[in-house]
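Subject: complex prediction, re-run

Hi both,

The earlier run crashed halfway through, so I resubmitted it with identical inputs.
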Amino acid sequence: MALGGGGKQVRTSTARWIAVGFLIFGILLAIFDAPQHVVGLFDAVGVPVKHSMFDRIGENFPYRLGLDIQGGTHLVYRADTSAVAAGERDTAMKSLRDVIERRVNLFGVAEPLVQIEKSGDESRLIVELAGVRDIGASIALIGETPYLEFREERPAEEQKAIAEAQGKGERMNEDLLFAPTQLTGRFVKRADVNFEPTTFQPLVTLELTDEGASIFADITKKNIGKRLAIYLDGAPISAPVVNEVIGDGSAQITGNFTPESAREFAGRLNAGALPVPISLISQQSVEASLGKDSLNRSVTAGIIGFLAVAVFMILWFRLPGLIAVLALLLYVAITLAIFKLIPVTLTIAGIAGLILSIGMAVDANILIFERMKEELRDGRDLETAIREGFSRAWPSIRDSNISSILTSLILYWLGTSVVQGFALTLGIGILVSMFSAISVTRTLLLAVMTRRLERVRALFLSGFAGAR
Amino acid sequence: MNIIKHKLFFLGFSGLLTIASITVLVMWGLKPGIDFTGGSFLEAEFSDVRPPTEEIRSAVESLDLGTVILQPTGERGIILRFRHVNEPMHQAIVKALTGLPGNERGIDEKRFDAIGPTIGATLRQRAIGAIVLTIAVIVLYIAWAFRHISKPVASWKYGVVTIVALLHDLAVPVGAFAAFGHFWGTEVDVLFITALLTILGFSVHDTIVVFDRIRENLRKLRKAEPYTETVNRSIRETFVRSVLTSFTVLLVLAIVFFLGGISTRDFTLALIIGITMGTYSSIFVASPLLVLWEDLTKKK
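This time it finished cleanly. Structure:
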């Protein structure tokens, strides 16, 4: 039975249209996946294209790279929630996360990640900072509690008493000039950086909470004409003279600020104090150049791996092999696009998973093609052999892939970020490969089939004759 | 080609290999990496020339780091492994290394990990949990997928045989890494567990393809044929596919092994060993075991 029959002719031509669709889809995906490279290709061939359009795709849809590739720091903190009532722990952890997130944002890291992790009874906080070089400084900034306080001048006799006591070596820890007040950084609602209109000296303005405002009003009322000192982490930063009662809860601090130090100070005040104490239990950091080197190596390995599989498939299966390679190209393009869209954080292990999935993706094709050859040897005509090959191979493709998908789900659950990266890429790879190896290959195979081709059975019946 | 006829030979070989692997494992044990035990790892590159190992050792000696393992890498690099330290201690170590003679521009710190012991404990539990869970899920899945086959061999037996093949596939890489750890100090980290689980998935995947053919051949069987013959024919029919698939996978793995970075080298090696075993066992272990089991039951 040849391909002449009316009904089948339609099916072949439909397959051709779909095949053209796949081709266009593939080109669009390639542009989406690697706009810069596609532009380079267009330039090399001499096709005029608007570069800005491709640049925009690259900017709006970048790959999200893991810390082991772009360099950065991964920190795990243990939060001590023992002082917090059991029912309020979740809320405390959430506000802890918010405070740390605000502090981390001060680094100007592109996409800082701060997440809560529960491990048995222990609450942990994971902080990932991409591209941060100075780990010591970032750890210090995350962990410390900026402590702002307002102190009022001591009465003269008290100053004298302390001075005398200190002369005898007593009361050494007390401040000679100033006494603490109730007002601390806890009552700061908002801090901003401003500039003195005449001297352009940077200053930090504070907006206090309602409670803070009334305390501040009391203090200023008591201390008109005296100095009010502002201490940060136990050290005085300025001591302005109070001129009038301030009742609206606004205060300003003029220290010896540079614009940067003023911004940092305001930022830290805004970030607030930590609701629960934390301690660093694990840190991992990778320098960017090391990550870049690993990435280059992985990409090279991936390309060579792809080429090796492609050469093998074409040598072994000839025409169907070539089609499987086209399907494999589409597979890689779809997978990369999904990585960009979700987005999946690409780690070195994740890329290894993707490369491994290239080797595994052709498994479905191998199953189908070997089946097709069996059918051809049994004397079926080409089209029947193709259709039978696909339908007979399906149950084992399905069953074997389900077991691999189950494995990747469990791996994902095992869950450190390295493993999750691998599990996710492997899982996505398996799902996409089922589509590309089955639907795409079948469509392409039916599309290229002609009556003339059928006579050249050597194009299909290749490889060793099988172990029969 | 009659694999079933020589099943005792293949099964014996695999049995010996498994016993050897388990012996090595019990004797030497696996060397857990810092992600399981807690500890620190520091990789740095000296600006000009790497000082002699002894000088590096004495530079950090006063810092009370416990046992420090030094490992030179590349031309100017060094890897230090020691107990879990906090950030000030980390800075002190970097300072001590920077102060070594012959390196005016100091050192370039490439990687630093300090993992607390509690993190390691969590990970250990989860890794074991994941392996047990995977095995359980796969037995259930296979028993379900092959539920319609009850003659001549019950469907749950396919599940059990798959697990036996699985354990064989896992035992060999685990034994190999116990030996590597003993001779070269190779450590197993969380990526090794990932490799084991991947091997698990692949091994089952491979075994299922053969079993699926047995299932199909049993279904379409018109004339009576001994079970042994059906199994043997199924192995033969899927043999090329099994070898080809493993070949493509091993091909890419070998490329990643040689061209990929050091960070994934042990991981790929574990996969290469496991996947080779997985292919071997799906052909030479799983199906022969099915037949052997059937033979033994019939004799009773």
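Chain A touches chain B through 75 residues (CB under 8 Å).

- K.
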